[in-house]
Amino acid sequence: MTERTICLTVLGRERPGIVAGITGVLFDTDCNIRDSTMTILAGEFVMLLIVELPDNLTSTGLDQALAEVQRRFDLSIFIKRLTDDEVRYQPPAGTRSWAVTIYGGDRKGIVHHVASVMARKGISITELKTKVVGGASGVGIVSMKVMAPADVELAVIRGQLNEVAARFGVEVSIG
Predict the structure, then answer these.
(1) What's the domain range around 143?
(2) Are residues 81 and 129 in the same domain?
(3) From the CB of residue 62, how many other CB atoms can be counted at a distance below 10 Å?
């Protein structure tokens, strides 16, 4: 691989211009964004990028190039170098992807109990989003994308999630 790959994490209070500032530095240093996600949670900006560095740039050099944007926006920036194996990661053969949605009154512990069902069966959560709509007594919405081993039966997981749903008084769908 002629270019090296890093995971770049950016955290800070949301304000206009952060994405333009970070991506401007990446463009100016000849980096390539391979994968990214960004969101704002309770006013906090969070961005995660997988970035290829050109041969003439080290992760320390990129860190130095990001210093002005980091200072201007009061950001926390972390760089993790990825190994070739991490970059080439592929889900194990035979895995299946499912979507899980949980809807109902916001209750502490729902995410933990659903995640525990998944963990016990060797299911990886590949994406997780939660949102409470309507204030303190509002409705909670949880959506997950999961990757299940080939030998895990959807009907078994559905039954275990229905038990969690009954305990918390929410609705769960999977498929």
Answers:
(1) 96-174
(2) no
(3) 21
In percent, the amount of the chain with pLDDT more than 70 equals 97
Phi-psi region of 122 (alpha: psi -120 to 50; beta: other; left: phi over 0): left
Average pLDDT, the chain: 92
Whether this model's pTM surpasses 0.90: no
Q: Could you say which of 63, 87, 111 is where a domain stops?
A: 87
Report, as an integer, the average pLDDT of 40-66: 95
Give the total number of structural domains in the chain: 2
> In the chain, what is the straight-line distance between the N-terminal and C-terminal CA atoms, in Å?
38
Give me the CATH number covering residue 53: 3.30.70.260
Distances (CA, A) of 147 to 34, 88, 93, 95, 111: 21, 17, 11, 6, 17
Q: What is the pLDDT at residue 3?
A: 54
SS3 129: strand
Q: Is the confidence at residue 82, as pLDDT, over 80?
A: yes
Give CA–CA dist 50/6, Å, rounded.
6
- 82 and 14 together in one domain: yes
